[in-house]
Design a protein that fits this description.
CATH superfamily of the largest domain: ATPase, nucleotide binding domain
Helix content: 25-40%
Number of helices: 7
Radius of gyration: 19 Å
Distance between the termini: 63 Å
CATH architecture of the largest domain: 2-Layer Sandwich
Largest sheet: 5 strands, mixed
CATH topology of the largest domain: Nucleotidyltransferase, domain 5
Structural class: alpha/beta
Strand order of the largest sheet: 3-2-1-4-5
Order of helices and strands: EEEHEHEHEEEHEHEHH
Number of domains: 2
Length: about 240
């Protein structure tokens, strides 16, 4: 079964066609334009290079985040649209789990700066051929992140923010040897994503509507609406 997989959780757009462990097509680049303007073109190009049509695809996989709000919406909506049009099964996988699996390390901290003093983070442990979360994808303060880490051992660092924060992590947890994964493996790859999704897709996958992004925090619009509701409720109490 040929799987078309897509990850748009970071500035790198990753698109792959994968079948039984073989990479049939791959595009990974940092497009100058937004993902919404380039994703369909990239998918068409990857298919064309292998002389394939959308009808040759048997299933789809997509990275669910955490990551860019806009990027996640674009990737998930695109996969949902293709799946609905072609009546194909889909599977969603945590983009952080995809990153961890791509490192092939035993213990992996995936880290992304969520701004405003917060971090998206997850800690994965390799067990046989699977990556199991020791700490699931979370939105944490710096102090909470440091507290969640073990006191000693070796920990591989991956994700968009690891270069910037490695020195601070090493200072906060001197008993841990923090090792940077090579740059090519710090972001989620659609190839690894397809491999992780393959078992679920072989079992029938899920319906496109079931794909839910891992936002972890409210969007700016949701935050504004929440503040407006709180202000309105506060005004009503004093009326």
């Amino acid at each position: 079964m040929k799987i078309l997989s897509v990850d748009t959780s970071t500035p790198r757009l990753s698109v792959a066609i994968w079948e039984n462990g073989e990479v049939l097509g791959l595009s990974e680049r940092f497009p100058e334009r937004r993902h919404a303007e380039t994703i369909l073109t990239e998918i068409e190009q990857v298919l064309r290079e292998r002389q394939l049509s959308p009808r040759d695809i048997g299933a789809l996989a997509v990275g669910l985040g955490p990551g860019s709000f806009t990027g996640l919406r674009v990737g998930i909506a695109t996969v949902q649209g293709i799946a609905q049009a072609l009546q194909l099964p889909v599977a969603g996988v945590s983009s952080f789990q995809v990153i961890a699996a791509g490192t092939h390390a035993d213990l992996v901290l995936v880290l992304e700066d969520a701004r405003q003093g917060m971090f998206y983070a997850a800690l994965y442990e390799r067990r046989a051929n699977d990556y199991v979360p020791r700490m699931a994808e979370s939105l944490l303060t710096w102090d909470a992140l440091v507290l969640a880490l073990p006191e000693s051992g070796v920990c591989t660092l991956a994700g968009p923010a690891v270069v910037q924060w490695q020195p601070q992590l090493a200072q906060a947890k001197p008993g841990i040897a923090f090792e940077l994964v090579p740059e090519a493996f710090r972001l989620p790859s659609a190839v690894t994503l397809a491999g992780l999704a393959a078992a679920a897709l072989a079992a029938g996958g899920t319906v496109p509507e079931a794909l839910i992004p891992l936002y972890l925090r409210r969007t700016q619009a949701e935050e504004m609406k929440a503040r407006q509701n709180a202000a309105r409720l506060g005004g009503n109490r004093h009326a």
